[in-house]
Write a structure and sequence with these properties.
The protein is an alpha/beta fold and about 180 residues long. The protein has a single domain, classed as 3-Layer(aba) Sandwich (Rossmann fold). It has 4 helices and 9 strands. Helix 2 links the parallel strand 2 and strand 3. Helix 1 packs across helix 2. Bound molecules: inosinic acid and magnesium ion (MG). The site of inosinic acid (IMP) has 16 residues, from strand 5, helix 3 and strand 8.
């Protein structure tokens, strides 16, 4: 897997440090609030597992799985829910955890869908943000790292479902996803 990477852009140490900072911020912001942290499968699984252990508050966790139709390295904006939440979020404070906000189309759909269930609040926490690719407005409240427009893998992010278990984030060699 390592040989398929051009370069590592975020090391394990950098990620660990930043995740702890985000956890501390979230801990401060959600004191005395009924918090439910919602991970978007599968990309957010690794980040979510580390993040929630840095949030020193009682919380519920839940997961949602969505897929957008279209090519694997591009988002089409047409979103389908493959797995919905198991819990009710009405009157709870929802924190959505995502791996990366790219065009924003997936998140826009998810936020609107969750808002319709009348939660007390909805905020978004993403590990990575690629603002140069944004097609629609999404309000990112907690962002781990802003990255340039390159296709990255590792720490939950995949290409064709592989590389999610790399403990760092790297840029895939273009020949891997163009062949
Ligand atoms: P959006 O709807 O364009 O914001 O797409 C977000 C989803 O596209 C993410 O949850 C990822 O699954 C995927 N994605 C976008 N950019 C990358 C990348 O650089 N590497 C891996 N997956 C990506
Ligand atoms: Mg994803």
């Amino acid at each position: 897997m390592e040989n398929d990477l051009d370069k590592i852009i975020l090391t394990q140490e950098q990620i660990t440090k930043r995740v702890a900072e985000l956890g501390e911020e979230i801990t401060k912001d959600y004191q005395d609030k009924q918090l439910v942290v919602i991970g978007i499968l599968r990309g957010a699984a690794v980040f979510m597992a580390d993040l929630i252990r840095e949030v020193k508050l009682p919380m519920e966790i839940d997961f949602m799985s969505v897929s957008s139709y279209g090519a694997s390295t591009k988002s089409s904006g047409v979103v389908r829910i493959n797995k919905d939440l198991d819990s009710t979020i009405t009157d709870k404070h929802v924190l959505i955890v995502e791996d990366i906000v790219d065009t924003g189309l997936t998140l826009k759909y998810i936020v609107e869908n969750l808002m319709s269930r009348k939660p007390a609040s909805v905020r978004l926490c993403t590990l990575l943000d690629k603002p140069s690719r944004r097609a629609v407005d999404v309000d990112v409240h907690y962002n781990g790292f802003t990255i340039p427009d390159e296709f990255v893998v590792g720490y939950g992010l995949d290409y064709a479902e592989i590389y999610r278990n790399l403990p760092y984030i790297g840029v895939l060699k273009p020949e891997i996803y163009t062949r």
